[in-house]
Design brief:
Ribosomal Protein L25, Chain P, Alpha/beta knot, rRNA (uridine-N3-)-methyltransferase activity, 12 strands, 2 domains, alpha/beta, rRNA processing, five-stranded mixed beta sheet, seven-stranded parallel beta sheet, cytoplasm, single chain
Length: 250
């Protein structure tokens, strides 16, 4: 049986007794019904995994003891930041969830010309917290120990000017340049357009900021599908999904 896994940002070390945070406590008590003596696994974004045991519970509190620490190698050597044009509702949630599962390092939601999502500053903050929690849940499920940072939405032009990476790519279905043409980078910035695609002016702006247009094949993907396919290809070529990495782990 798989040991339940929770994210809790507080400091941890072997032998410590800690009270789990409210979110983890509610899920552990109400959804999983953990009790004294049950085992669980914790991570706090420092790259380690902490095996623990429940030592005390109440209706609103769960105390655990950290038994030992592990340092699993689950982060790819390739760092990927995704600039994801905003899309409606569950599509954006899906893109963030799957991008996290695929190992991206940072996600920046972007306002673009064809973006149909309008958010006030208050709603932007609320959505950012919602998306960050989606990333946390995806890390709990995928066994990652480092949670990618999900930024508040920002204009495309602002992100293009600020983002730093060894290789900058913009998905553009009219491009014929294959990914294998590029020298292996240690970091990639990946721009993905909205449901209606980026305008030609936006693509040209990205190119002017050092981005290379690339296509993932002859078919046009949805905005929420593109980051999954793209990150899989990038990690296969230069990260930890290729045959060399798989062979070395045997």
């Amino acid at each position: 049986m798989r040991i339940p896994r929770f994210y809790d940002p507080q400091p941890m070390a072997e032998g410590m007794h800690i009270d789990l945070g409210e979110t983890a406590t509610q899920h552990a008590l109400k959804a999983l019904r953990l009790r004294e003596g049950d085992a669980l696994s914790l991570f706090n974004n420092d790259g380690h995994e902490y095996r623990a045991e429940v030592v005390a519970t109440s209706k609103t509190r769960m105390q655990v003891k950290i038994l030992h620490t592990q340092s699993p190698e689950r982060e790819s050597p390739l760092k990927i930041e995704i600039g994801q044009a905003l899309s409606r509702g569950e599509r954006m949630d899906y893109a963030i969830q799957k991008s996290t599962e695929m190992g991206c390092t940072r996600i920046s939601p972007l306002f673009t010309e064809r973006c149909e999502v309008k958010l006030s500053h208050e709603r932007q903050d609320k959505r950012q917290r919602h998306w960050q929690q989606i990333a946390v849940s995806a890390c709990e499920q995928s066994l990652r120990c480092v949670v990618p940072e999900v930024h508040s939405p920002r204009p495309l032009a602002e992100w293009l000017q600020d983002v730093q990476a060894d290789l900058k790519l913009v998905l553009h279905h009219h491009s014929a340049q294959p990914l294998a043409d590029f020298q292996p980078p240690s970091s990639v910035a990946l721009l993905i357009g909205p449901e209606g695609g980026l305008t030609e002016a936006e693509v040209e702006l990205a190119i002017a900021q050092g981005f290379y247009p690339v296509a993932l094949g002859p078919r046009v993907m949805r905005t929420e599908t593109a980051p999954v396919a793209a990150t899989a290809l990038l990690h296969y070529l230069w990260g930890d999904l290729g045959p060399t990495q798989q062979d070395s782990s045997k």
